[in-house]
């Protein structure tokens, strides 16, 4: 391993991974991925023995098992930011025992090459950025790990779009991956997901500030379309029971949605909540990336070119655990059951019970932490067996 | 009853019901509702005895029990058009035994007064049309029945937005209604529904052809925004299992959503399906009515001004049956269970089992027919008991 290429623990760096040729045949030259790495030295915490079956703490970084964490659609490589309860010293993703890597995806907007990046001609890629698949993202990540000189990862872990990449890792590079945990995901996009996701793409495209995807040099951005997409997306990420408990039919403070005339400034509380989420995403996320990654989710299908979905899963050789959320409407529980029945080397199914829906893997820290610990012990045992 | 005011059986007429004052205090002058009526003479069908516990067939219209059917959001008074398996001679809504009435709602666009109707000043109401509630629709319908000289209805039956009106009928006019069947509806809008519905309103409002609701004289109409709203709405009306069985990840015929570059003309089959539904609605439904009725669904709350939702249901004096669809995500089954636990005079709960989701009440004709027959026998017995 070229440990000298790693950023300091908890920080990030850009890694050049060379050209990436997409599944559909387009070359993206000189791809960069922004990588975060976590590998703290052992601390003197006296409560440290609670994970004693795991890998030895405090090893030099090149001797540590590698965990590759795959972020979701609007996540990024900054794992400690979006999964703070899971990662750190003595947390489930224990930074004193593992070398933990998390990279922003190909097509993203958090430091990796995407539609908003600079094309070799000096302008933004914009509409010239190709359609990419989940597999193309994995292709770029494999090139990243090769660049780092990493020859094996103990486990790949991801939820939602990260779960889709996790499944593709097991099918594209089975010898490279010791074990996998796919969370809140399916073997392929469902028609219902494609319907929702393609609608979101259209909201962005319908915004006149989109300029066909080439808005970067115009000084405008399709914030309104992004907001519309995010409101709908967020409604599929959350459970209706949880939202109803929080907001019910309450009006937004100081507004009256029951007045004599309907008005866009007379909102229900849930509208104010969705507006806040929409406003946050408009600022922090590039519309071109949102469209590109959403399209990649539409293209997700482990069966493409592999004789169909179940044939592909059956040939999977990587021990894989599956988890999901009971109230998820975007990736309903039956999809996780489907994976569990068809994966070639299935090692367990865990359910997060929560009213929150799909986002349960981000919200239910205690349950998610238990699932990660259970999985990581399995992965460690599998790793020991493999090392003989 | 003023039978002379009724249209011929199977046809429609406009009825003037006078001014309607909305719950929020706005007067809509000279409201008209478009009414369909069904009251066939007895036919000579020899298979006719299968409903022998029901009301006597072939009575003169003024002697028949009245059934009031309440249509859903984009339905209308033309009951035989949207519920063809349910209504007709010897069908569950037996046109030889009942006088069956179905009127387009206040705010609608199928012949009743709504935003697209002519204001007293000669231009369209447009943005001047007030916000209306489910209760305001019932107010107009009660004025319609009063105009017809009808003093009692044997049953009110409705699904979805029609179910919301059905519940309000039982609370606003308990002495007038013999029994009620509320299908695929809840006691009030949920936060999740409001989130989805308010998003749909915004799609229409964001279309530059909306012109603040006053597009009627511009020669333009917000068809694009309506299409966006319809695509999302349709995804909440259908079950993901059924959609996935039909479309999966298939491409639209002749298009390639897996190509090197994403393109709006390279669609999945499910996108083509949603586009067809969007295109149909754009043509047949007025955007102003869509916004007004969607807003009315947001305002649906049987508890408003009645001491809360469960207190209102507990005081209900009309024998009420509840039905729903097991896979409905828009009005989930737990909402029908909630009604069944809280209604003051609850007479039964029936479940349509179907992969189709909310639209099951339109699609699963055999199951829906059985529920109607079961309910109508209950209503007939209740009516006989009341008549002594």
Assembly classification? homodimer
Counted by DSSP, the helix tally of chain A is: 12
Give the strand content of chain A. Answer: 15-25%
User: What structural class should be given to the helix and strand makeup of chain A?
Assistant: alpha/beta
Rg calc of chain A? 21 Å
CA-CA gap between termini of chain A: 21 Å
Helix percent of chain A reads: 25-40%
Order of helices and strands of chain A: EEEHEEEHEHEHHHHHHEHEHH
Strand order of the largest sheet of chain A: 1-2-6-3-7-8-9-10
Report mean pLDDT of chain A, rounded to a whole number: 95
Task: Tell me, briefly, the overall form of chain A.
Answer: globular
Tally of DSSP β-strands of chain A: 10
Keywords (chains A, B): Acyltransferase, Amino-acid biosynthesis, Cytoplasm, Methionine biosynthesis, Transferase
Pfam family, one (chains A, B): Abhydrolase_1
Domain AB hydrolase-1 (chains A, B): 65-362
Protein name (chains A, B): Homoserine O-acetyltransferase
Write the layout of secondary structure elements.
The structure is a homodimer of 388-residue chains.
Chain A: E1 11-21, E2 27-38, E3 66-70, H1 79-82, E4 87-88, E5 93-94, E6 99-103, H2 134-147, E7 153-159, H3 161-172, E8 177-183, H4 191-206, H5 223-237, H6 240-247, H7 269-284, H8 287-299, H9 309-314, E9 320-325, H10 333-342, E10 346-352, H11 360-363, H12 365-387
Parallel strand pairs in A: 3-6, 3-7, 4-5, 7-8, 8-9, 9-10
Antiparallel strand pairs in A: 1-2, 2-6
Helix pairs in contact in A: 2-3, 4-5, 4-8, 5-7
């Amino acid at each position: 391993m070229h440990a000298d290429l790693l950023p300091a623990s908890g920080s990030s760096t850009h890694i050049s991974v060379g050209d990436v040729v997409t599944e559909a045949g387009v070359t993206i030259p000189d791809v960069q991925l922004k990588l975060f790495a976590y590998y703290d030295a052992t601390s003197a915490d006296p409560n440290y023995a609670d994970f004693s079956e795991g890998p030895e703490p405090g090893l030099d970084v090149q001797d540590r098992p590698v965990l590759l964490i795959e972020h979701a659609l609007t996540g990024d490589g900054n794992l400690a930011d979006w999964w703070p309860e899971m990662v750190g010293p003595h947390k489930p993703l224990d930074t004193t025992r593992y070398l933990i890597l998390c990279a922003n995806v190909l097509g993203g907007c958090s430091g990796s090459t995407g539609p908003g990046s600079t094309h070799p001609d000096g302008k933004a890629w914009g509409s010239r950025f190709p359609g990419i698949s989940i597999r193309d993202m994995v292709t770029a990540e494999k090139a990243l790990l090769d660049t780092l000189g990493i020859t094996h990862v103990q486990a790949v872990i991801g939820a939602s779009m990260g779960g889709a990449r996790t499944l593709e890792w097991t099918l594209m590079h089975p010898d490279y991956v010791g074990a996998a945990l796919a969370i809140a995901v399916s073997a392929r996009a469902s028609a219902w997901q494609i319907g929702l996701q393609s609608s979101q793409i259209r909201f962005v495209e319908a915004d006149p500030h989109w300029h066909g995807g080439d808005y970067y040099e115009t000084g405008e951005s399709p914030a309104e379309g992004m907001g519309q997409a995010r409101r709908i997306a967020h409604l599929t990420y959350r459970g209706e029971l949880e939202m109803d408990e929080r907001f019910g039919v309450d009006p937004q403070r100081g507004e009256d949605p029951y007045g004599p005339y309907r008005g866009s400034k007379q909102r229900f509380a849930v509208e104010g909540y969705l507006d806040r989420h929409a406003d946050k995403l408009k600022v922090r996320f590039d519309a071109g990336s949102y469209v590109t990654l959403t399209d990649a989710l539409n293209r997700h299908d482990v069966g493409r070119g592999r004789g169909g979905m179940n044939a592909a899963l059956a040939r999977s050789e990587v021990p894989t655990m599956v988890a999901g959320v009971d109230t998820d409407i975007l990736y309903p529980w039956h999809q996780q059951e489907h994976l569990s029945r068809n994966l070639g080397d299935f090692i367990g199914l865990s359910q997060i019970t929560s009213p929150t829906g799909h986002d349960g893997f981000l919200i239910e820290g205690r349950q998610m932490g238990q699932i990660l610990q259970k999985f990581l012990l399995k992965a460690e045992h599998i790793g020991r067996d493999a090392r003989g």
